[in-house]
Amino acid sequence: MGGLVYYSSGSGNTARFVAQLGLPAQRIPTRPEEPMPDPQAPFVLICPTYADGMGRGAVAKPVIRFLNDPARRALLRGVIASGNRNFGATYALAGRVVAEKCNVPVLYAFELAGTETDVARVRAGLEKFWGMECLTAP
């Protein structure tokens, strides 16, 4: 199975979700002086949404910094987004933005720290997703 890279702010919702998955994961730091993860294999990104009412700022700056590196971006295979349904059209917008810019699929979206059902669905979905990946890709 491929890896996970995630970003979680001070609220810790995404970190709690990733911990419940029980899968190896690397965290994108909140502070710019901390070292970025350096994935060596394909990975799925899990990221929360931080958008204003117009959708601006949906993708957290540390996630943008992480994906601005071409070597890391080349290993991205999909994105799982979180958000708050109270924000309507901007719910999980970060996932859609990353997917469009990086030409990868949005694999799942969950609210806040997710539910037990979300955790089970993501675990099963990742197992299926990584099982489907073509092993002959460059």
Descriptive overview:
By secondary structure, the chain is of the alpha/beta class. It has helices at residues 13-21, 61-67, 70-74, 93-102, 116-132; strands at residues 3-7, 25-28, 43-48, 76-83, 106-111. The protein has a five-stranded parallel beta sheet with strand order 2-1-3-4-5, with helices on both faces. Strand 1, helix 1 (13-21) and strand 2 (25-28) form a beta-alpha-beta unit. Helix 1 (13-21) crosses helix 5. The longest helix has 17 residues, at 116-132.
Short description:
By secondary structure, the chain is an alpha/beta fold.
SSE topology sketch:
Elements: E1 3-7, H1 13-21, E2 25-28, E3 43-48, H2 61-67, H3 70-74, E4 76-83, H4 93-102, E5 106-111, H5 116-132
Parallel strand pairs: 1-2, 1-3, 3-4, 4-5
Helix pairs in contact: 1-5
Sheet with the most strands: spatial strand order: 2-1-3-4-5
**What pattern of helices and strands is seen along the backbone?**
EHEEHHEHEH
Rg: 14 Å
Strand content: 15-25%
Mean pLDDT: 90
Question: Distance between the terminal alpha carbons, to the nearest Å?
Answer: 17 Å
Biggest sheet statistics: 5 strands, parallel
Uncertain parts: none
Number of strands: 5
Shape: globular
Number of helices: 5
Question: What structural category arises from helix and sheet content?
Answer: alpha/beta
Helix content: 25-40%
